[in-house]
Amino acid sequence: MTCPHCEAGFLPDGAQRCPLCGEQPIVNRVAPRRSPPRGAPRPVLLFDPEEETPPRRRWYRLGVALALTASVSVLWLAAQARQPTQMGPIASERALPVAPTPTPEPVAVAPAPAPPVTPPRARTVAPAPPAPRRAAPVERAPGYLSVNTRPWALLSIDGRLIGNTPRIKVRLTPGVHQFRLQRVGFKPYEAAVEVKAGETVSITNITLTAISP
Predict the structure, then answer these.
(1) Could you tell me the residue ranges of all domains in the chain?
(2) Could you tell me the pTM of the whole model?
(3) Which of 181, 138, 133 has its CA nearest to residue 157?
(4) What percent of the residues of the chain are helix, what percent strand, and what percent coil, each to the nearest 5?
(5) Topology (CATH level 3) of domain 143-207
(6) 141 with 199: CB under 8 angstroms?
(7) Where is pLDDT greater, at 95 or 39?
(8) Which among 40, 114, 146, 208 is placed 20 to 30 Å from 104, CA to CA?
(9) How far is Cα 30 from Cα 33, in angstroms, rounded to an integer?
(10) What residues are paired with 203 via a beta bridge?
(11) What is the tens place of the pLDDT at every residue in 170-187?
């Protein structure tokens, strides 16, 4: 026998409580049937006697009915909401043409007088100062050097070979210059000389010393 409360537990014969829910089983006691008196009409049964539905099953059936009703209501509302959108294009196609509204003619408006134009004021620009002139480089007058030796020798000034002596008026820039005299078999001679602009320096008393064998 199945428990009428939870409908899951199995009740053996003679069990006092359900092993799952712990409820006591409902035992329907059937009263002995009595025969009606003679001559009395028999009662008409409109429905078959059934066992009393447990309260949990009633709530379950009520919940299922409510869920079905809510689902049907939602489907009906969705169908009603879709119906105007489907009928919209048909209604717009069958709409009667509307006569165009006449456009009012433009009214000529007199132009506003232009404001007087003020001529711009002339700006006085100061002349740019003249560019400073560069002073022309002053050419310094050269100086001259004359050299003579005994015996003759090769003359070099500031490392530049001039030639054999004697040399007269070798053109040089004003300032100090280094000259050198050399010849094979003689000791070289070196000295410094200052040459001024426009002047000639003469060195003629140079005697080279021979190298002893």
Answers:
(1) 1-27+54-82, 143-207
(2) 0.36
(3) 181
(4) 20, 25, 60
(5) Immunoglobulin-like (2.60.40)
(6) no
(7) 39
(8) 114
(9) 9
(10) 147
(11) 999 999 999 999 999 999
